[in-house]
Amino acid sequence: MIAIDLIVTTAQHATSSIIKQAEATADKLSVPFIPRKGLSLAAIKQEYQISELLVITGNGPVIHTAAGEYFFHLSMAELRIKNLKSGNHDHMTTAMGLTAGMSVLDCTLGLATDAIVASFVIGEHGLITGLESSPLIAFITGYGLQNFVVASDPALISALRRIKVHNADYSEHLKACANNSFDVVYFDPMFRAPIQKSSNVKPIRSLANKQPITVEAIRQACRVARKRVVVKETTGSGEFVRLGIKTVVGGKYSSIHYGVIDCGPWQTGGDQP
């Protein structure tokens, strides 16, 4: 049997349109489509000796992993936006120095929670691009951003729709970016020491890029950013020191902090980091 890492299938009793969508998804991801035919997901996994399944349902795509299900959801983005509307503080947007009309390159899009909040703050005249190196995560997140509906909040829907998703590795993408092409470049890597209570992240740890940020990536980010490079990490992380980041901000009792590098316009031949 040929080794297979991923299979696309459908929910039970799928409509013809869902089946067509599943076939198109399998083609896009260059993986096999297996008709459900009444089989359980466990039976399909056992037959094809795989641990991950992408299931196309009427409510959107769902990845079934050994650690649980992964599907697009707003996570904490909706609550954070409600807090901003109420005039409350958000440490990430403060660390980024975000204002309306700015441009942001999110190098590690993942669930897009932070990107959604940033998109809301920079507004309709802002620009936000998200990079995600995992084809599966990029697919799920991209689909959700364009299709998820929040009936009571058109401003939140607009924030989702404005985010442009690219399945790309930030190390290579940054090298191709022009000098000073975004106001802010942002990194939210998989934490070296995971926060165990963040159960919504567990299913994607096996799918996500776990490589630590390199000093070269930070250097490239400083070239690309007109104003700031921001790195999100767990409080007390040694990553800030390793990457040469001296300014760290965040709540006194928060488990998350943000490393900030003020870049300023990059001049060719200059002595920036």
TrEMBL record:
GO BP field: methylation
Gene3D superfamilies, A to Z: Vaccinia Virus protein VP39
Enzyme Commission number(s) of this protein: 2.1.1.242
An annotated Gene Ontology molecular function: methyltransferase activity
One Pfam entry name: SAM_MT
Keywords in alphabetical order: Methyltransferase, Transferase
UniProt-recorded name of the protein: Ribosomal RNA small subunit methyltransferase J
Protein source organism: Sporomusa acidovorans (strain ATCC 49682 / DSM 3132 / Mol)
Organism taxonomic ancestry: Bacteria, Bacillati, Bacillota, Negativicutes, Selenomonadales
